[in-house]
Design brief:
Blueprint (H helix, E strand, L loop, with lengths): L9 H16 L12 H5 L1 H5 L4 H5 L13 H14 L3 H27 L2 H13 L4 H5 L4 H18 L5 H14 L6 H13 L4 H6 L1 H26 L2 H4 L15 H20 L22 H19 L5 H14 L19 H21 L3 H28 L3 H11 L4 H14 L2 H14 L4 H13 L3 H13 L6 H12 L3 H11 L4 H13 L1
Helix pairs in contact: 1-6, 1-7, 5-10, 6-7, 6-9, 7-18, 9-10, 9-11, 10-13, 11-17, 15-16, 16-17, 17-18, 20-21, 21-22, 21-23, 22-23, 23-24, 23-25, 24-25, 25-26, 26-27
Length: 538
């Protein structure tokens, strides 16, 4: 096998992907549980109890208010604990392994569908180098995105086969949506793949593949039945239909339709620009880092709308003549719409992880356009120049990915960097304040937390942490007011009640401390009495 044609051998391709991804993300094996990974630690008792498998499979992700049901993702965490123990290194290892396999499956899908090894290799390479993926790979809780795309690709590969296994297709579909709800996009994408493979999608094609199509459809329906049971039967019908969140996580949930849609298209343009020009990648885009725009009369919204409409045109116009473009546009559109906030509000206004699946569509489109350009170039030195330019871009992307994923290794590093890329975010300012508080830098903690309060004073943890600052400064009255304010929020932070207990005990007011202990532990008088007695005995 000659060097330039190694992309024809799938095992050499797999090896090259493994080496590249280890070079970029191998250092994350030394990272810890960061940011949203806290959910794994907070639920570790349940996840490590493999004897109660039913509880894991029917448990919301992570709480009923989230409106999320991802049993496959929870099961993957449980298996991580069972097989490897509590070390975060093995959680990161599984994420890296999934990213390797996903890149390889992208190669197989494109190669088998379009019979083009160069296009397949370049699509997968571009996908694995993109820095916008660092949040998904380097953050353990990105597991849901990885699993959803992993199983979705397995579904699509069944649709490419001459003799597909409809049982496997149905199983992979169930696992895909069970990893993350947005994998329901695999349904229309699989029909698009079926059209491309058969050059049509008429009644005879559907009859021929009736069992295959039915299998994925039934699996998706069965998932939503399980979701209804897990969220609605146990916790109330409202949890099945949507998420409960604050205006900090997603202000688009609390605005008018025009403002929501115009802002959502502006967010799409942000994703698109950061996909190709990955500067200022950030862990947080919450209130008020992305301001609400009341109409389409702004450049970001107009560019986002234009990009969306061009994708719709590519999907329809090139379905017969250039199906690669059509598939790329379809993958982007069908996987982006569920997380876009365009047709309905979701749990967050934006997040780089949300563009993980949609970015595959752009990887396919860009790789195809570059491939066609390469074929049109006749002069050898220009071909070499094009290849050199693309190699330089990929090296640049790789270096950015290494630097960015390094930020995700440590919570303090991540939160302090978020202030620089999201200075108007309540969460970023509050988290930075918490880091300075842990360092013992009360002045800096106070500064960051007061900035957060000035942006919007509704984040209960941030309000509580500012109370802690004042408590350590000996300003008990200010601390007391902030603790009470944290408990009055729509999503209260109950740790503020514990802080009130300690405040009253230091002021030698055991009756007030007892009042808040009863709030935390109603009916448990023995525990309350022992707590107070132990405090004063010290």
């Amino acid at each position: 096998m000659s060097g330039p044609e190694f992309y024809k051998n799938k095992w050499w391709v797999l090896l090259s992907f493994s080496v590249l991804i280890l070079v970029i993300y191998g250092h994350t094996l030394g990272g810890g549980f960061v940011y949203d990974d806290r959910g794994i630690l907070e639920n570790s008792a349940m996840l490590q109890n493999t004897e109660n498998l039913e509880q894991i499979l029917l448990h919301p992700y992570w709480n009923p208010e989230s409106g999320l049901y991802r049993p496959v993702t929870l099961l993957s965490y449980s298996l991580n604990f069972t097989i490897f123990g509590q070390s975060p290194a093995y959680f990161h290892f599984v994420n890296i392994l999934l990213y390797v396999v996903i890149s390889f499956l992208i190669y197989l899908l494109v190669k088998n569908l379009f019979r083009n090894g160069i296009l397949a290799f370049s699509t997968a390479i571009l996908f694995l180098f993109w820095p916008i993926h660092t949040e998904v790979v380097a953050n353990i809780s990105g597991r849901s995105e990885l699993l959803a795309l992993f199983f979705s690709l397995l579904v699509l590969l069944q649709f490419v086969k001459d003799k597909p296994n409809f049982w496997l297709a149905g199983l992979w579909m169930l696992f895909a949506v069970g990893s993350k709800e947005t994998a329901v996009a695999t349904l229309p994408i699989s029909l698009l793949v079926l059209y491309i493979k058969n050059s049509s999608l008429n009644l005879s094609t559907l009859k021929k593949h009736f069992r295959l199509v039915s299998a994925v459809l039934i699996s998706a329906c069965f998932y939503f039945f399980l979701r209804f049971y897990a969220l609605s039967y146990n916790f109330g019908l409202e949890n099945f239909f949507g998420v409960k969140t604050t205006s900090i996580e997603n202000p688009l949930m609390f605005t008018d339709v025009l403002s929501r849609v115009s802002t959502a298209f502006g967010v799409l343009w942000i994703y698109f620009t950061k996909l190709f020009w990955p500067v200022q990648l950030c862990s947080d885009y919450s209130y008020n880092q992305i301001p609400i725009v009341p109409s389409f009369w702004n450049m970001g919204s107009l560019f986002g709308l234009f990009l969306f409409m061009v994708s719709v045109w590519l999907l329809i116009h090139y379905l017969k003549t250039r199906p690669v473009l059509s598939l790329g546009a379809g993958i982007f559109l069908f996987s982006f719409i569920p997380v876009s906030n365009i047709f309905f509000p979701t749990g967050t206004i934006a997040g780089e992880r949300l563009f993980f699946f949609p970015s595959l569509g752009f990887a396919l489109i860009i790789s195809y356009l570059i491939y066609k350009l390469y074929l049109k170039i006749k002069k050898p030195h220009l071909k070499i120049l094009l290849i050199s330019l693309m190699a330089a871009v990929l090296i640049g992307y790789g270096l950015i990915s290494i630097k960015r994923s390094w930020m995700w290794n440590n919570e303090e590093r991540l939160f302090l960097s978020a202030v620089k890329c999201a200075p108007q975010s309540v969460l970023s300012r509050s988290n930075a304040g918490a880091m300075h508080l842990l360092r013992g830098d009360l002045a800096k903690a106070q500064e960051e937390l007061e900035i957060a309060m000035s942006i919007k004073p509704i984040y209960s943890k941030g309000i509580n942490n500012l109370g802690l600052v004042y408590f350590r400064l000996g300003q008990n009255e200010k601390a007391r007011k902030l603790y009470l304010e944290a408990l009055r929020q729509e999503f209260p932070y109950f740790g503020a009640a514990e802080n009130l207990v300690l405040l009253y005990l230091t002021e030698n007011k055991p009756e007030m401390a007892r009042h808040w202990l009863r709030y935390l532990y109603p009916g448990n008088e023995n525990l309350i009495k022992n707590f107070i007695d132990n405090y004063y005995s010290k």
